[in-house]
Specification:
CATH superfamily: lambda repressor-like DNA-binding domains
Number of domains: 1
Strand content: under 5%
Largest sheet: none
Mean pLDDT: 93
Number of strands: 0
Helix content: 55-70%
Distance between the termini: 12 Å
Shape: globular
Number of helices: 5
Length: about 60
């Protein structure tokens, strides 16, 4: 997710605004401190304009 976000030139705050979350939530997701719901991942994927599978590829 970090790579996709930085490719857009976005900060954590930019992504948070785009998917209606707070910056701390994005930080925790990026650092692996929380497990996101599928709904949260879908919101983030839509904000980044990518397919959901790009966020969850193994």
């Amino acid at each position: 997710m970090v790579e996709l976000r930085t490719q857009k030139g976005w900060s954590q705050s930019d992504l948070a605004r785009a998917c209606h979350k707070d910056r701390q939530a994005i930080e925790k997701l990026e650092n692996g401190k929380v497990n996101p719901t599928i709904y949260s991942l879908l919101e983030i994927a839509q904000a980044l304009e990518v397919e959901l599978r790009e966020l969850v590829s193994f």
